[in-house]
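re the bet — no i am not wrong, look at it urself. input seq straight from the record:
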Amino acid sequence: MTKPVQRAVRTQGERSTAMRQRLLDATIDCLVEHGYAGTTVTKIADRAGVTRGAQVHHYRTKAELVTAAIEHLANRLAEQTFADLSRLESSEDLIGDALEMIWQVHQGPVFAASVELWVAARTDPSLRDHVARLETTTIASLVDSGRKRLGAIADRPKYRHVVYTAMDVVRGILITSWAHPNADQLNARWRRAKERLRIMIEASLDRPS
């Protein structure tokens, strides 16, 4: 006779962690779908599949939820960056692949949610401080990722400026493309920008063209 499979019983701490994770993921989803102004605690709770009481138990207000979601976003962006770093380990086109990594990191809901927070932070000083920390964490992840792969090159003062410029270009292309979404045009704009960035990077890092 087969013995019944015993399910592992989660501790209260594990259940609380799982609940917070659901709420934070739901917050990001709502930011992407409804924007910051349209994101409410009720929509977040519905999206997470929890009661308002359960939501309030963990995060009393929208401000608390969004603040925690910002930290959650920073962690997800860092994890995504380090996961993509493995692609550079055996790259035969380090500059091209590094630029593609920056481009890919800025795709999808995490970047879209980040943009919603940047826009809202313009008129919300308390949110602005938290968003500034998100930005610092994101850039630090990309800079550190490159440093691990590029070694001494990444210690040059110009290296950080190169990363900043590449990120500014990528973000500008993506944000402006939302007004006139067209995949072919978007890809063409990125290919053009990537080639210009490559020239700049090769000159900055004293690499042969």
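see?? Residues 11 and 202 are 54 Å apart (CA to CA). told u. also The mean pLDDT is 82. so pay up
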